## 1
Amino acid sequence: MTTDHFFNKIKEEAGKFEIITLAEMDSVKLMDRMDVKYLIPMNLLPNILADARQHYRLLEINKQRLCPYQTLYYDTEDLRLYHLHQVGKQNRYKVRSRNYVGSDLQFFEVKFKNNRGRTIKKRIKTDGINEPHLANESSEFLTKISPLEPDNLQGIMWVNYTRLTLVSKHNAERLTIDLELTFKNDAKEIQYAQIAIAEIKQEKIGASPILNIFKKHHLKEGSISKYCFGIISLFEGIKQNNFKKHLRRITKTLHQYDSIAANTFA
């Protein structure tokens, strides 16, 4: 079943938001934060956005409110960074190059999840996306801020999507909603157009209108990271024991979407 109907409804709802500019976003970068993920079927998003409109502004860049992102993730040949995440290792890293297509900005980014559950992101501007290996400037930056060895890392997977970025009118809080998730490596490309991954980002987890909205729509906290989801989708025989709960939720959400879409267009 096509997702075009729901995607158009999402664009329609996005067009009704009060906007925030990239410059205004500086006060809510939240490079040191707590975050919580949710999995959302596409058919629910128009109603969720309608409920959120009074509480949030929506990022607009060059007259675009649904902004494309292109991300190249790095790992070792044996996927050591993925496996550390899969076993629940604290003080772990993700390493990526990202193209913010709408603003034509590229960054090399390193995310560190510490043992208190905080996500700390550090980055530098780059000229384009480095592939398949890190450029000198990126290598030096990684060495400076982490124990990782740049020469052991290689670009292993693209994660591309369209993002809505909502910013609270009242608190230091952002909500990102990623649609049209596409995972790609040299051998395979997979898209999950029926679901979105939402992430609430706050200085510390607390009360939020979006939490109440998600509860209203019977959505439960918890979703696998896009990086780990992509690895599992693209690489055969990958260990995934600790993600089984999230993968079951993804499968259930896909089935729910197919059922609702079938009734919608019957």
Note: The longest helix spans residues 244-264.
## 2
Amino acid sequence: MAASVLFDAPGPATRRRHRIYTVVASAAILAAIGYALWKLNDDGQFEYALWEPFLTPDYLRALILDGLVDTVTMAVFAILGAVVFGFVFGVAKMSDHAFVRWPAWVVVEFFRAMPVLLLMIFVFFMWFISMQGSFLWIDQRSGFFSVVIALTCYNGAVLAEVVRAGVDAIPKGQAEAAYAIGMRKSQVMTIILLPQAVKVMLPAMISQMVVALKDTSLGYAVAAPGLTKVGQAIYKEFHNQVQAAIVLAVLYVGLNLLLTALATWIQRRFVGENKIDVVTVAAGIESQSRA
């Protein structure tokens, strides 16, 4: 067995010990799940009356057509806004001009440090104040935009750091070769570095998209539409908080799996393993300028 450069390959005793640990841990997890199911059954949480709302067409229609669609819509707007925010402020943080770099740094660090729920509430009440305290404007649209703006700013700030780290991960020789053949910094950034950095950034960007989708569940605090809002209305009427939580969790897990699969397909389809050839790009730019 070939030894790793980081650690020696485990011997027979170590492999046997690892198998024992795996069996013990699996047994403990199964025991915990069995105990939880037994307690739920003992408390009557599996009674049909508590699960009936999620099998009733009217409630399913509200849960899927209203809650699911609103959740996906908020997530899509927030993700698109966060990507634009991240690229703009990520590139601005790498600017050679201090009057661009430092304000971008302040904005990114502020929104990264701000708890997203607090940010939603802050945006919501700023909306309320801007409408001169009129409760006529405090409806689901107010909550909707509060969630989208808060998630855009928070996740955009995180993606700005991802963009900066992705560009820094590109070998310095790429930029040096581009400068050596006469390319300007804006060309180096947009044509050479960013296209290669996207490949490095995509796993982190996919992870942040999942975070944005999950954080839409916090919108219930500002009366925003979505799955948690519909689920809240259901369990308040039928007093089935456990069942509502389980159903909402299953829906969120399914959405996150679909989002991850879609983002992974986009990565393989449009990024793949291709790399930027600086000399070829520069030749193309030169030929276009001559034409």
Note: The mean pLDDT is 82.
## 3
Amino acid sequence: MTPSAPVQAPAELSDHLRSNLRSQAIDEHGFELNLSPWNSRIGHLPGAPIRGTNDDTERGIISRGSLFAMADAACKDESNDAAYALLWHTLAWGSGTNHRNTPQRVASVTQDVEGIGGALRRAAIASRKDPEAAFRTFQPFEPLIKSLGPNFFTKYLYFAGAGNPEHRCLIVDKRVLATLSRYTAEPLTPRNGSGYGYNTYSNAIELMAHWADQFSTAERRIGFDEVERWAFKVG
């Protein structure tokens, strides 16, 4: 977003940033999950199984930090297995116990394993230099993966940045948009359903990056994702 009058960051965001170290708010942000249902569904697909930080495939913790550690391989592995691994772990992290769309997503992947795998790796690479290309890889016209809209695929694009605090592909879901919309003249919330296009994504990213810049100092550079984390919590 390049507003004619820059939007001042809310005071409550400042309070959040002062009271939360990046290592705690971002790297350690995770969940202990039952991984068995996931692995029973995706065991036949590339990138399986999903493993927690304890290397367990039954139950384990998946954190932002553990997902960041998978990002470079997702960009470099030409077999696309690592990109699939990042996708499955990201979906587990983001879905928790809610498997409402999991069967449709898995079924969609099985229809074109090779083609979708290549697109996943291209999207991971593009996320580091071209947010629009990354976004449109997942949503050119029809979704790349059925039932996987921007609320979720932006999580994959975010983790592909490997924890770079200035990575411009951020998680933008309905809760983040709801928070940001309270501080903009033109609300960012989608008018129809939960889907949205690249312009909404770009505007949300620019606003969060702008706010991060407002609070950054020589002593501490605020990560763009630290603003996203706050926006999700209050959304």
Note: DSSP finds 13 helices and two strands in the chain.
## 4
Amino acid sequence: MKAHHNIVIVGGGNAGISTAAQLLRQDSTLDVAILDGSKKHYYQPAWTLVGGGEFNIQDTARDEASVIPTGAKWIQQMVSAFLPEENTITLADGSTLGYNYLIVAPGIQLNWSDVKGLKENLGKNGVCSNYSFESAPYTWECIQNTKGGKALFTNPNTPIKCGGAPQKIMYLAADYFKKHQVSTQVELWSGGTRVFGVEKYENTLKKVIARYGIHTQFFVKLAEIDGPAKKAKFVGIGEGNKDQEYWVEYDMIHVTPPQSAPDFIKNSPLANATGWVDVEKFTLQHVKYKNIFGCGDAAGLPVSRTGAAIRKQVPVLVENLLALMKGEPLKGVYSGYSSCPIITGYDQLVLAEFDYNNNPMETFPFDQSKERWSMYQMKKYLLPYLYWNQILPGRM
């Protein structure tokens, strides 16, 4: 293995692959290496549809080798440590890799073990989650097998990838129960403070919640699952209910696990005080190490962590990195754009698009806060096609 590359990209997910592809489209002679030990690449936004019985899980996975851009070197290892003062990375096997420029895009870490009993019960006892390839299909089983009682949907008090995902599957389940005349009480137990951070879209979602008769509880986090007894323990985290405990019986519970930056980021010199890659929010350049950039879910940006956000971050990063390499000023600016296609039922979707200041940044010439059949079709059919054929190859 070559011990040094001009540009090293940590992470072979959406952010890492599309960044490499766009760099090589700009200059095919660039020496680019991608560090990732994963053998599979997943289109994770479709896992909500898998959980709702609308998508085949096998269609969300491809071999990682198939998405590595032509001209990039794939190093099939994970990172153990960063030595930015020396411009080197320590790999999992103990070897070191040098770089001139580093792009850090390893994605987000799912902390299943932070909830007592979650790992042991996931995939059985009515405990499901769309947040892994292995467990997403069981969500659909749970929805179909629920004949009454309570269906709980959790949202942790940590940043998560696709902030709307915990609600999307909840609305699909509620719509399924309604259409099949199943009398099940649907409940959202959330560590957040409100339904959605952008008022325009939140107003619509409040009406959706009322339509399905969903009960909501905020300022709580899931602490424990007793699978055999089908009970979940929540604890209060707000000033008004701090340390209060709730044991709630369920027939099914969809869990969104607590999430964080990967441990090798949190424990590195690249991290900010909360563990994320410490980048400047407009240029995506590291605040201390100027030859390092970050983007995607692990970046310390005050933004919803979505594939749509990555699609807007990558061109800015590419423009600024190439400018830095030429000794030119960094002119690329990321506005904080993110998008959350919020499924509100079968064949219904609200397309939320917004910036750092939670101001709507809508693409289409109509009110995107309204539930639309057309936007659902876009989510189900168009976006997966664009991901594999346009976004990953660096064409958009």
Note: The domain at 4-108+261-336 is CATH 3.50.50.60 (FAD/NAD(P)-binding domain).
